[in-house]
Structures are given as structure tokens and as C-alpha cells.
């Protein structure tokens, strides 16, 4: 059990490190626009104070975080040139971790998505 917990903690640290690298790398001019767009969406989702599916919903609340975030990071890494990724990985390891940025734009988009879904459901039920 302790080994499994240690493995999960290691994976969480890796995701956090990859998010830091992604935060540095997405602004690089050598990164193609489609990789920047995906990286921006992934970072926005990661740092948004509001989840797409709230965590209080059993299973689904955490399942979206466990699938969406690693998938976005993995695809972003594949789209960013490897030399750029390696360069910013070294840079992220050399700089101390900063406070978690918050994306209010992403929060606004998610709130808008929920309001739109509620409006659609209300009109559909009428």
C-alpha cells in the first residue's frame, strides 16, 4: 500500500513539473500555433479555480481531472519540439517553484459553459 501511495505521489510531482515546463514553453516562438493553443487550454484547465465537472460529484468529479489533465499535457509535449521541451525542462528545474497561477479567463469560460448548459436544459425541459 505504501509503495502504491509513493508511486501516486511521484506521478503527481511529475505532472506538476510538466505543468511548470509547459507554462514556460508555450510562449516560445519555436512552438507551433496549434501546440500553443493546446498548451493554453491545458494550462487554463489546470490553473482554473473551477472544474469542468465539480469534484463533489462522485467519481466523475475526480475522473475528469485524472483523464483530462494528463491527456492535455501528453499531447502538448508531443506537439512541442523536443529541443524546446528539453531546454525549458532544465530551466524549470533550475528555478524555484512559484505560487500557483490562477486563470480567471478559464474560470469565466467554464462558468459560461455551465450557464449555457443550464439554459439549454431549462429550455429543453420546458
From TrEMBL:
TM region(s), chain numbering: 101-122
Signal peptide start-end: none
Membrane topology per record: Multi-pass membrane protein
Localization per record: Endomembrane system
Pfam family, one: DUF1232
Domain DUF1232: 35-71
A Gene Ontology term for the protein's cellular component: endomembrane system
Keyword line: Membrane, Transmembrane, Transmembrane helix
Record's protein name: DUF1232 domain-containing protein
Native source organism of the sequence: Herpetosiphon aurantiacus (strain ATCC 23779 / DSM 785 / 114-95)
